[in-house]
Design brief:
Strand content: 15-25%
Oligomer: single chain
Bound molecules: flavin-adenine dinucleotide
Distance between the termini: 32 Å
Strand order of the largest sheet: 15-12-14-13-17-18-16
Helix content: 25-40%
Number of helices: 14
CATH architecture of the largest domain: 3-Layer(aba) Sandwich
Number of domains: 3
Length: 450
């Protein structure tokens, strides 16, 4: 049996070397090691047997057909930020690192399937344009967008998936299809929230918005002000639901103590910068206010620097709450005190404004009501895997009674079937029907479906 498997892998390698050229097929060596190194989570120990680095949809098609013909599993590697390593768990990894081109065509970006958010933001910057991205530049555009995409402009322009206008996709049967509102619209619907479960996205058409600059940066408050600051934050958002998006978190500060951190992003009128900043800083008595007018690309670079930590193991849990109640805030504050590793943190992405006005049934994404998405990030560098997992699970369990049913599919892993079962709400049936239509044999296994 094992020999049979080795034989099949060898045949995939030989087929692809002949079809694509040996330089794009890595059974070991630099291309293979590079792909493994790009995984954000140092705790991932999946060992793919072969890495392919395609340069075109035709190359991707060859890789999909070779793996299905020889009955080995495949996964697709974009930015490598999926905490549970779903991009590298296949026998064969299709690494899209050579497909990172970004072209700007008016207010549309045509983005390669392997591009990072930083590349997209940099390409849009000279045109005074910005995309709906996450808050960290090294995340892949495709992974973020297909699963959701909360970020600093969510209130103003919606989630990343709301701005996906079309895509080129290599399907499980090797067909290369273009999907948009008029062609294969069901496929576009499924890609907008259903993750990489429908094919390899080799290119995306993404709507850009005129946002040449933003008032952005970091505001930090002492830990003991958490309840007051976060309670008052809820009232502030009622006044500025669209242009003000604060990404919130409990994080370790430079002196080792926990801080309440706000990644501030005001994309409204520049003349209002000072007034809005005063309101946000006035949520408590801040220990740090480092905010300036900057381009969206610069904002991402600064956030990346702030979030940069020692390469560590990562386990993520998530819940979604309708608001930050005092009880919820206190649970998170207590969890921060109890965390076994100082690197661990809790982040919160608000969802309000533009994405609330999009009908639930118009994309696969499972929630459209106002909410806060909470990410519990256990990060550690030693061997205390059980202890750190237990901390994240206990924090999740404590928050669950206060949470909405829906949860963010990009954050819960394949080990949370109860969250996958309800995450898509009334969109679940249609999503599963489309999975059966576009990928009937389950070639693509990305975020958990119901
Ligand atoms: C440090 C950090 C910061 C983050 N910040 C945010 C944030 O601000 N907002 C937010 O919403 N999320 C955020 N996330 C979550 C992130 O959006 C998801 O983990 C996302 O799936 C990562 O995409 P990737 O391409 O980087 O990862 P990968 O691990 O490469 O891919 C993720 C999944 O998408 C699939 N995939 C990737 N590219 C393609 C493609 N072209 N075609 C088909 N399938 C594909 C992969 O197979 C895999 O299943 C963050 C995660 C981390 C670790």
């Amino acid at each position: 049996m094992a020999n049979d498997f080795e034989d099949r892998i060898a045949r995939v390698g030989a087929t692809l070397s002949s079809d694509l050229g040996a330089a794009k097929v890595h059974l070991g060596g630099p291309g293979y090691e590079d792909a493994r190194k790009r995984i954000y989570n140092a705790g991932i120990d999946f060992a793919p047997r072969l890495v392919v680095t395609p340069e075109s949809a035709a190359d991707v098609r060859a890789a999909v057909l070779a793996t299905t013909e020889h009955d080995v599993t495949l996964s697709v590697l974009g930015g490598g930020h999926d905490w549970s390593g779903r991009s590298v768990r296949g026998d064969v990894v299709v690494d899209l690192t050579r497909m990172q081109q970004v072209l700007i065509d008016g207010d549309i970006a045509v983005v390669g399937g392997g591009a990072t958010i930083a590349r997209l933001a940099q390409a849009a910057e000279p045109h005074g344009l910005a995309a709906a991205t996450g808050s960290t530049g090294s995340v892949g555009v495709a992974g973020l967008t297909l699963g959701g995409g909360y970020g600093p402009f969510t209130g103003r322009i919606g989630m990343a998936l709301d701005n996906l206008l079309g895509a080129e996709v290599v399907l499980a049967d090797g067909r290369v299809v273009s999907t948009d509102a008029d062609n294969e619209p069901d496929l576009l619907w499924a890609l907008r929230g259903g993750g990489g479960n429908f094919g390899v996205v080799t290119a995306m058409r993404i709507r850009l918005h005129t946002i040449p600059s933003v008032s952005a940066g970091t505001i930090a408050f002492p830990f003991d002000q958490a309840v007051g600051v976060l309670n008052r934050y809820g009232a502030l958002v009622e006044r500025y639901p669209d242009e003000l998006t604060e990404t919130l978190g409990f994080m370790q500060g430079p002196d080792g103590g926990v801080l309440v951190v706000l990644l501030h992003a005001w994309s409204g009128a520049e003349s209002e910068d000072a007034r809005v900043l005063d309101l946000v800083a006035g949520l408590g008595d801040p220990v740090l206010v480092q905010v300036s007018r900057q381009s969206p690309a610069q904002m991402l670079r600064e956030a990346e620097e702030m979030l940069a930590v020692t390469k560590s193991k990562l386990l993520t849990r998530t819940v979604t709450v309708s608001e930050l109640s005092t009880e919820t805030i206190e649970i998170m504050a207590e969890a921060m005190k109890q965390r076994p590793s100082p690197l661990s943190y809790i982040g919160m992405h608000p969802f309000h404004g533009a994405p609330e006005r999009i009908p639930l049934e118009s994309t696969a994404f499972g929630i459209r009501q106002r909410h806060i998405m909470i990410g519990i990030f256990a990060m550690w560098t030693d061997d205390a895997d059980d202890e750190n997992r237990a901390w994240a699970d206990a924090t999740l369990a404590a928050l669950r009674p206060h949470a909405l049913q829906s949860a963010y599919p990009n954050y819960f892993g394949n080990d949370r079937p109860e969250q996958a079962a309800v995450a898509y709400g009334p969109n679940a049936d249609r999503l599963l029907r489309l999975k059966a239509r576009y990928d009937p044999t389950g070639v693509f296994a990305a975020i958990s479906l119901p």
